Amino acid sequence: MQGVILLLFAKYYHLPFLRDVQTDCTRTGLGGYWGNKGGVSVRLAAFGHMLCFLNCHLPAHMDKAEQRKDNFQTILSLQQFQGPGAQGILDHDLVFWFGDLNFRIESYDLHFVKFAIDSEQLHQLWEKDQLNMAKNTWPILKGFQEGPLNFAPTFKFDVGTNKYDTSAKKRKPAWTDRILWKVKAPGGGPSPSGRERHRLQVTQHSYRSHMEYTVSDHKPVAAQFILHFAFRDDVPLVRLEVADEWVRPEQAVVRYRMETVFARSSWDWIGLYRVTFSEESLPKGHGDFILGYYSHTHSILIGVTEPFQISLPTSELASSSTDSSGASSEDEDDSTLELLAPKSRSPSPGKSKRHRSRSPGLARFPGLALRPSSRERRGTSRSPSPQSRRLPWVAPDRGSDSGSRGSSEEGVPGPPGPWAFQPPVPQSLGLLPALRLETVDPGGGSSWGPDREVPAPNGLSPSPQCRQGLEGGGLGP
User: Fold this and answer.
1) What DSSP state is assigned to residue 52?
2) CA-based, 20 to 30 A from 111: which of 98, 259, 401, 473?
3) 444 Cβ contact partners less than 8 Å away, ≥ 6 residues apart
């Protein structure tokens, strides 16, 4: 094993209430130089409660129990997080500790252990399990809980089979793969929401192994929990609203409202995500999508819509261009589009690492201003500075009207307006779709109200969705 990985998934409708996400890792292999052993953690505030997930791979072999304890103490002491909520792992309201912890079964020989497994008398092995014994003697494990081990030991198997080790080493079966949790005692200061901390209630719904997987000498272990919160912070900082379906380009409108306590940043953006996808290639045709508001301050999506459908006709010309791009499309993913409000700064130089998008992209829809292809962008400057990269304004409607305020001579920006778009800076992170945002009045700072019509570009009549402005303003400062 050459590393430790931890992936955390959440249902999309929980995203607005997951904040302060931070990660950390500690190498303990080869004296701290190699990551084959160690721990990886993800911490976050969920509905106002601080949670931490810690995945560890501890030293192997029967006689290394003390070394496992030392490694665990090292991981707990070295992993620290920013902010007043919870700086250490054990400072969180709830900690899940899991992974290949490598604890073994002492005293009993191989034949007795296999007899207990075959006769389903697993309880005879529990009292000699090193982790169960350590919970009674190691102060560092005080408060950690685990469900009953009602499944057979998950190590060591012949790869590709359900047979325990038949090699010359003939290692004893053991419960090396474990899932534990610890709830912080009540008190200990206020939560991130300012309320006094209350004790969480954790109920383990299931704890089992999966014998059907044979690709490793371990069997994976899974657990399900139900968390009972004493209170819930369930007010989203940003609310996004869209129509149930987009069938015409002028319906590509998103409205959003911000709570007064939300700290808006000029680096915030709105992303359009396809609901389901099975590969990295650009989705074609129609489908269900979700809009998400990404907060630079919180470094996470803090507002999402319900799934809605896009049924706009795809552009045959754009599709053929995309399909014929060949190797160039593999070198650079054209699935992102950036939308900047008028007079916005370009994306932060601190965020200027180039990342290939791993999220599903958008088909090219006529009437929506999409990001130019990689070949079209090759002649442009890659500097994130606005002074060194002057770009033309592009209006959503690309008609032939020479008087359109959305077009201008290359390198000379046209007059800004509520629908002004900029081509993206290549260094930008995340998905930014071709959307028209109803923004605040650039002159007075007030939002367009329901009794005031929004001027449409190029002489078009505004759609009914455009007659009501946004509370909270646009993406720019």
Assistant:
1) E
2) 98
3) none
Token look-up 């409708």 returns 13
Q: Count of domains in the chain?
A: 2
Other beta carbons within 10 Å of 311: 13
Asked if 117 and 262 sit in the same domain, the reply is no
C-alpha 288/C-alpha 245 separation (Å) is: 9
Q: 């630079």: which residue's tokens?
A: 296
Cα(85)–Cα(255) distance, rounded to whole angstroms?
A: 32
> Could you give the CA distance from residue 304 to residue 14 in angstroms, rounded to a whole number?
9
- Dihedral pair phi/psi, residue 318, rounded to 5°: -65, -35
Report residues of the chain scoring pLDDT below 70. Answer: 1, 187-198, 277-285, 313-477
**pLDDT tens profile 321-332:** 334 334 333 443
The whole-model pTM stands at 0.66
Of 117, 418, 141, the closest CA to residue 253 belongs to: 418
Q: Of the candidates 228, 246, 275, which is a domain's last residue?
A: 228
What's the CA gap between 53 and 177, in Å, rounded?
A: 15
DSSP state at residue 161: S
